[in-house]
Amino acid sequence: MKLNKKHPLYQEDIANILNLNGLESLKGKKFLITGATGMVGVLLIDTLMNLGDVEVYAVGRSRTKAMARLGEYFDNSNFKFIEHDVCLPFKQDINVDYIIPMASNTHPLAYSKYPIETIMVNVKGAEQALNLAENCNAMVIYTSTNEVYGNSVNGESFTEDDNGRLNLSNSRSCYNESKRTCEALCQSYIAEKNVKVKIARLCRIFGPTMLESDTKASSQFIQKAIANEDIVLKSDGNQFFSYTYVADAVVGLLTILLRGEIGVPYNVSSEKTNIHLKDFAALCAEENGKKIIFDLPSAAEKKGFSIAMTAILDNNRIKSIGFEPGYEMKDAIHRTIEILK
After folding, report:
1. 97-147: pLDDT as tens digits
2. Would you call 312 helix, strand, or coil by DSSP?
3. Residue 115's closest CA among 164, 174, 28, 69?
4. Which of 155, 207, 247, 322 counts the highest number of beta carbons within 10 A?
5. Contacts of 47 (CB under 8 A, 6+ apart)
6. What angle, rounded to 10 degrees, do the helices at 39-51 and 8-18 form?
7. Distance, CA of 334 to CA of 331 (rounded, Å)
8. What does the DSSP assignment read for 264-294?
9. Cα angle for residues 51, 219, 336 (degrees, 5° grid)
10. Angle between helices 217-226 and 277-288 (to 10 degrees)
11. Are the C-beta atoms of residues 254 and 54 closer than 8 Å to each other?
């Protein structure tokens, strides 16, 4: 499984993002992006590099991994890769306009095996990004998550004013609680140090920039479909979640950057891709005429699973600033599988 960036569907995704009104105003700007080799980071950087006249500082822990995911830009004068641990301070001579901190463990097996590291990467990574923003007067676009809401009590959608319902009795809370702390840190830097921060609450994202190591259920379904195998579902599949195709997520992120308000969180979600987990699995199986097999998760897998059964994000606020999701679920799954095949 390898991302084919020259695939017509992937190039179409980039072109769709570039149609966002106002992107031309980013020409001549400098971006620092951590988690640069992640699912959103790769497509965001591909988009910015295709926009042209934009400087990108891509931050990651592994130059080898960055070469595999972003290697085509290493000879481009507008691209610089910084091999760096985001928990440590950045060099004082970095001067950028926008900082987008996305470095994080983002899948269940990582939460299960490395809960301490998950917390520290999130919290220290946010702190160092905010400190750098203060030093160079940059704007931070903080990528938070639907996980800050936890489980819906009565099945209603979450608006940005909801506080959610979370379970602190196990280590799985490492991700959602550290993300909530990071949002509080962002608000504190706004209040105490006048740092400019906008907040994007991304929901469950899928797409062709996924990593092979991703253990999220949706990613596992897609990998099975690519391998032309039956889809394995490790629950009854009744969970009802907001998902977002990665190209829509990047459009949402850039919409917030261009038109969002300082200190205001925005749900990045699409009503076109809200779906039950079993229906997500069925669409992946349908791609190859395969069937769904129900299997019990391992102890390590189960330990990292979210306890949430319903988590739908209301997107009226981000729509009020011009966001319109473009992809239907069936098309988004098809695109993902075709590009990665």
Report:
1. 999 999 988 777 777 788 999 999 999 999 999 999 999 999 999 999 999
2. coil
3. 174
4. 207
5. 14, 17, 18, 250, 254
6. 70
7. 5
8. -EEEE--GGGEEEHHHHHHHHHHHHT--EEE
9. 45
10. 10
11. no
